[in-house]
């Protein structure tokens, strides 16, 4: 307890700002992990300081297509249950049409993949049996999750705070933060209305207000407060004799972006259907100015009128009852980000300043535990790489981008979102120097790390005739969406001749200085003390020996290394390297991402193309694999790196960004006599990669699987220390719990006779239809899926426990409610195409 | 019986009130809007009357275009139609009363009863009802907390109870009449969802009357000084009970 007269501690190890579900659970988990000298501050009163926790609808549906979000939710549910504040009501997502029924089948797949059972598809009549006040004639079915429920998040926050207080937590309510002092790039002090606190670390867990607090320190927490409308109606005669608080399953009327749920004698109706209503954190009213609370803004009836019509139609008995009144109606504020994911971890701008923001009730306690683990151990049980706040590139943190994407995402909250679905707003921010050339070739652009990146080129449509029957068409609209058979044609042309690939989205940074070798040696699993001119592909491990990233490092000089990594998590990787620099300044990291552009040139004719324009030896002996050289191509000095992510002879060619267009033109001209084409990322990221069994970070590789399981523990362990080494050594000595396998789909034909193609994340089942779980409790699911045009097959990658990781093992994959036969074709992701790598090393 | 109820759009206050920079209005950046509580009771009373006696309820406001929200709110709880005198300007009580009188005289419906809230929640001038009654030469009763009728066709009357210290005064007035009611006369209902939806389709007659020169001008608003709230911790846990009992005794609530 705190009284206003008590003074604040003069200095603390950790100050947490924000006493909602996140701040309280973080405080609890930090104390549980043995941390002391912690103060929790909130400008509001307790137990409800006026943030989003106080007005949250508090229901939890566990199934999400994202593994990371599902894991955070499941961990949160476990904690809510342990705290005694979870009421298991069940929940039903109802479908109003066939497209949604297909989406509900996808949700069944995700539920099995993430181990959430039971779930089922139920008929309209069965929905009505569970929720007797629904007009089942409006729906065609439902996805029933009996384990869904409702929590008391304020109570949970209170219990966790009290437990933390027993372990010494200081709580300062009614205490507003006035400033965050940063010295030498590090957080130093929290200035409040009740005095200053020196702090080693500060966590912003302020929900909607987080951007404002971050700005006080010159950092960025790129989220926007957005309005979510909800109303409570009652008293409902049918609920008059409800025995408990929650008697009926929650209904999510997902096709209308709405939900309805009973609580006590009332029915709560909420909506994500209205126009996106954004505001700035600075515009949120103060507690004193607020009629209800700062995050319960005056209701704007006009925005909700259409939703009332919909609810009335779905639940006429209750919503249409003239005696049932609208008792409470708010425009509730919640936090929305530009990509729909939370913002967790230390901010890249200020050392010691952490973010635990953009978290909703269903992830709160799980996120609190995760951030606590990251702060104490540097890694967390649940890998939250997708939510790492360091992921954002500068343009993604702008107000315009956050509001545009948050607004676009808002109305997709319950949407049917295709795995490859593209954002429509605020595109065209990062353009490679060849962008106009690509447009002229009819490039279809997807966004990658903010870059416009071609996935295929319509100009290559003529290749479809050339390859004819070798290219499978996709009959079902879902799989044909965001895809083109031209991708497979480009693949075959690359395998036959050559292709250039836009790789501008790479993140590139240099590690330099006297301690550069020590720095990369400590971070990379593979030996980095290699001659200048070598290129090393290496895992970057977490302390636990799982994947932080996989990337390539070029030794540029004795004291300089160039790190090249995928764009998606390039900024997270940059921070990881920065975080591991020696304290004495003897090594530095310089971001080169916007300085260099990259073109890949691969295929059996790649050497011919390059030789025709480059001054320098490009022979196999003169320019061996896994080396880089400086070449002259026309007037350009080009850094050529002989590696391949597509399994063919070739190079990555790096030039300063402003010279990229010229490089394209020179290669284009040189390639013409050799039949060279431009190929998109469909080849680079999927077909070429999968044929070779190359793993991708974020698909096969993440913090859940170790190097041995991924089949990447080739060679011996280097003598030097590196992050994750003890764990990695231990992993080598144990039998892997799972092994990375490549499978082929044996029959694509669905019950309706249409050939179907999996897109990823589907569960792998035994031949008798049982889910497969390894001894660490992880389910086997499809990590990547795609065509192997050179093999004429469709490939799936999946981790399988040893008893199933056998070549020839026959299994099933569940996709859209049906099961298809699959066969294990390789273990440890050995290439199915050119297993000897003869095409690369020649 | 046809009843007209006059309402005013006012800020929905609940937290600290702040003034605009020119100190002539409330800062409404963060505020919602409502009608004055007395007026909400007046509409409820009117709806109950016509539920009992038959007839129509018309709700009238003088206010900005946004005040249509309040008209819809009132139609959601049962008013049949609305008259909206649209103006973004501030009107004094004389001008307001004159505009209402003109609207009433111009309306095709003859209203046997005109209801007001006893005073608006913001300006609190206590004038408009009386001025309207005077101009229409009708009897007016203010401060009414109970309302009944004797609808003898020859001599229809309203029976109005006014709360006074220690009891109630009862007035009987012939209809048509003007009555200003106070909160407590009834408990206004919450709107139902069907009521809300019907309200979106009910008619609003909008017009823009010219504002006469103000006879009374508001110069500026002053916030009352902070009441100097103090928090005193009486104790913690069960040990605090005797102190709490003592305070409750002092307050005379035991």
The pLDDT mean of chain B sits at 92
**DSSP helical segment count of chain B:** 6
Helix coverage percent of residues of chain B?
25-40%
The portion of residues assigned to helices of chain A is: 10-25%
Strand line-up of the largest beta sheet of chain B? 9-8-7-10-6-1-4-5-11
CATH homology-level superfamily of chain B: HUPs
- Helix/sheet category of chain B: alpha/beta
- Please tell me the total number of domains of chain B: 1
- Give the terminus-to-terminus CA distance of chain B: 47 Å
Tag the structure with descriptive keywords.
heterodimer; A: 842 residues; D-Amino Acid Oxidase, Chain A, domain 2; Elongation Factor Tu (Ef-tu), domain 3; nine-stranded mixed beta sheet; eight-stranded mixed beta sheet; 28% strand; globular; disordered N terminus; B: alpha/beta; Rossmann fold; 6 helices
In short:
Chain A is built from 20 helices and 40 strands.
Describe this structure in words.
- The complex is a heterodimer of chains A (842) and B (254).
- Chain A has 842 residues and is α+β, with helices and mostly antiparallel strands.
- In chain A, 24% of the residues lie in helices and 28% in strands.
- Among the domains of chain A are: 87-145 and 225-335, D-Amino Acid Oxidase, subunit A, domain 2 (D-Amino Acid Oxidase, Chain A, domain 2, 2-Layer Sandwich); 435-502, no CATH class; 690-827, Aminomethyltransferase beta-barrel domains (Elongation Factor Tu (Ef-tu), domain 3, Beta Barrel), CATH 2.40.30.110.
- In chain A, 57% of the residues are buried.
- In chain A, the strands form 7 sheets. A 9-stranded mixed beta sheet of chain A has the order 6-7-5-14-15-16-13-18-17, with helices on both faces. In chain A, strands 1, 2, 9, 10, 11, 12, 19 and 20 form an 8-stranded mixed beta sheet that branches.
- With 254 residues, chain B is an alpha/beta fold.
- Chain B has one domain (2-223): Rossmann fold (3-Layer(aba) Sandwich).
- In chain B, 26% of the residues lie in helices and 27% in strands.
- Chain B contains 6 helices and 11 strands.
- Chain B has helices spanning 37-53, 68-76, 93-106, 128-136, 193-199, 241-251, and strands at 2-7, 9-12, 32-35, 56-63, 81-86, 113-117, 140-150, 157-164, 167-174, 177-181, 204-207.
- The termini of chain B are far apart.
- Chain A binds chain B through residues 1, 3-4, 233, 285-292, 297-299, 301-302, 305, 308-309, 311-312, 319-327, and chain B through 12-16, 18, 29-33, 69, 72-73, 189-197, 200, 231, 233, 236.
């Amino acid at each position: 307890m705190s009284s206003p007269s008590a003074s604040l501690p003069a200095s603390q190890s950790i100050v947490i700002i924000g006493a909602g579900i996140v701040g309280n659970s973080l405080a609890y988990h930090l104390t549980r992990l043995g941390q002391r000298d912690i103060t929790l501050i909130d400008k509001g009163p307790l137990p409800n300081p006026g943030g989003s926790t106080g007005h949250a609808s508090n229901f939890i549906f566990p199934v999400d297509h994202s593994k990371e979000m599902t894991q955070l939710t499941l961990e949160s549910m476990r904690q809510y249950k342990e705290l005694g504040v979870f009421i298991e009501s069940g929940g039903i997502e109802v479908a109003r049409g066939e497209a949604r029924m297909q989406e509900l089948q996808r949700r069944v797949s995700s539920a099995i993949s993430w181990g959430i059972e039971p779930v089922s598809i139920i008929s309209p009549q069965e929905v009505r049996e569970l929720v007797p006040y629904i007009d089942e004639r409006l729906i065609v079915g439902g996805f029933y999750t009996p384990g869904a429920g409702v929590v008391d998040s304020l109570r949970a926050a209170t219990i966790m705070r009290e437990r933390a207080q027993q372990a010494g937590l200081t709580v300062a309510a009614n205490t507003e933060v006035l400033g965050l002092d940063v010295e030498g790039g590090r957080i130093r002090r929290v200035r409040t209305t009740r005095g200053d606190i020196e702090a080693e670390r500060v966590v912003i867990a302020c929900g909607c207000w987080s951007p404002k607090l971050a700005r006080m320190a010159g950092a960025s927490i790129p989220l926007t407060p957005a309005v979510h409308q909800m109303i409570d109606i009652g008293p409902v005669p049918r609920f008059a004799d409800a025995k408990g608080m929650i008697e009926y399953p929650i209904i999510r009327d997902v096709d209308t972006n709405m939900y309805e749920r009973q609580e006590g004698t009332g029915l709560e109706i909420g909506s994500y259907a209205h126009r996106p209503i954004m505001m700035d954190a600075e515009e949120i009213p103060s507690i004193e100015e607020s009629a209800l609370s700062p995050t319960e803004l005056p209701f704007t009836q006009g925005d909700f009128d259409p939703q009332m019509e919909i609810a009335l139609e779905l639940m006429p008995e209750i919503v249409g009852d003239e005696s049932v009144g609208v008792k409470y109606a708010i425009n509730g504020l919640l936090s929305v980000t530009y990509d729909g994911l939370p913002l967790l971890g230390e901010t890249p701008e200020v050392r010691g300043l952490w973010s635990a923001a953009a978290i909703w009730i269903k992830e709160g306690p799980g996120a609190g535990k995760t951030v606590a683990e990251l702060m104490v151990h540097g890694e967390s049980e649940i890998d939250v790489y997708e939510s790492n706040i360091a992921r954002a590139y500068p343009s993604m943190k702008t107000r315009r981008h956050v509001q545009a994407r948050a607004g676009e995402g808002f109305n997709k909250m319950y949407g049917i979102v295709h795995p490859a679905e593209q954002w429509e707003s605020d595109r065209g921010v990062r353009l490679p120097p060849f962008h106009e050339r690509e447009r002229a070739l009819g490039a279809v652009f997807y966004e990658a790390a903010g870059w416009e990146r071609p996935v295929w080129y319509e100009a290559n449509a003529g290749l479809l005739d050339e390859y004819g029957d070798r290219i499978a068409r996709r009959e079902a609209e879902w799989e044909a969406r965001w895809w083109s058979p031209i991708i497979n044609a480009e693949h075959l042309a690359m395998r036959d001749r050559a292709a250039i690939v836009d790789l501008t989205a790479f993140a590139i940074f240099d590690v330099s200085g006297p301690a550069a070798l020590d720095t990369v040696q400590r971070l990379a699993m593979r030996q980095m003390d290699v001659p200048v001119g070598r290129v090393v592909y290496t895992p970057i491990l977490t302390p636990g020996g799982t994947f932080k990233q996989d990337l390539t490092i070029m030794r540029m000089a004795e004291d300089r290394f160039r790190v090249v990594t995928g764009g998606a998590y390039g900024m997270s990787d940059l921070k990881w390297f920065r975080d591991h620099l020696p304290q004495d300044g003897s090594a530095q990291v310089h971001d080169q991402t916007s300085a260099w552009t990259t073109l890949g040139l691969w295929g059996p004719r790649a050497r011919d193309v390059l030789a025709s324009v480059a001054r320098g030896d490009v022979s196999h002996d003169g320019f061996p694999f896994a080396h880089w050289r400086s070449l002259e191509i026309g007037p350009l000095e080009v850094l050529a790196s002989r590696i391949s992510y597509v399994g063919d002879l070739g190079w990555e060619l790096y030039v300063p960004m402003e010279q990229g267009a010229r490089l394209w033109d020179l290669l284009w001209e040189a390639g013409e006599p050799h039949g060279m084409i431009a190929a998109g990322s469909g080849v680079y990221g999927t077909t070429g990669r999968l044929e070779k069994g190359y793993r991708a970070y974020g698909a096969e590789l993440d913090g859940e699987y170790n190097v041995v399981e991924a089949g990447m523990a080739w060679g011996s362990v280097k003598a030097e220390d590196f992050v994750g080494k003890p764990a990695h050594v231990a992993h080598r000595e144990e039998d892997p719990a799972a092994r990375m396998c490549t499978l082929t789909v044996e029959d694509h034909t669905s019950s309706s006779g249409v050939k179907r193609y999996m897109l990823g994340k589907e569960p792998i089942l035994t031949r008798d239809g049982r889910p497969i779980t390894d001894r660490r409790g992880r389910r086997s699911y499809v990590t990547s899926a795609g065509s192997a045009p050179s093999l004429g097959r469709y490939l799936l990658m999946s981790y399988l426990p040893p008893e199933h990781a056998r070549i020839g093992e026959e299994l099933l994959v569940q996709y859209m409610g049906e099961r298809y036969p699959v066969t294990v074709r390789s273990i440890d992701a050995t290439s199915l195409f050119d297993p000897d790598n003869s095409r690369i090393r020649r | 019986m046809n009843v007209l109820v006059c309402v005013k759009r006012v800020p929905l206050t609940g937290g600290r009130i702040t003034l605009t920079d020119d100190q002539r209005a409330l800062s409404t950046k963060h505020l919602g809007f409502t009608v004055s509580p007395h007026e909400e009771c007046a509409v409820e009373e009117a709806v109950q009357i016509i539920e009992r006696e038959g007839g129509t309820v018309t709700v009238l406001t003088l206010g900005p275009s946004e005040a249509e929200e309040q008209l819809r709110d009132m139609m959601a709880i049962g008013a049949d139609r609305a008259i909206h005198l649209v103006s973004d300007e501030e009107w004094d009580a004389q001008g307001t009363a004159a505009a209402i009188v003109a609207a009433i005289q111009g309306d095709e419906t003859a209203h046997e009863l005109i209801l007001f809230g006893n005073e608006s929640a913001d300006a609190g001038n206590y004038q408009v009802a009386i001025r309207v009654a005077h101009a229409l030469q009708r009897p007016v009763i203010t401060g009414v907390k109970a309302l009944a009728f004797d609808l003898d066709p020859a001599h229809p009357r309203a029976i109005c109870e006014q709360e006074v210290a220690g009891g109630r005064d009862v007035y009987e007035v012939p209809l048509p009449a003007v009555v200003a009611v106070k909160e407590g006369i009834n408990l206004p209902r919450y709107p139902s969802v069907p009521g809300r939806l019907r309200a979106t389709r009910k008619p609003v007659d909008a017009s823009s009357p010219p504002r006469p020169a103000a006879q009374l001008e508001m110069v500026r608003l002053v916030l009352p000084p902070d009441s100097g709230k103090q928090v005193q911790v009486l104790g913690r846990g069960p040990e605090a009970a005797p102190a709490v009992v003592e305070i409750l005794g002092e307050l005379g609530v035991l």
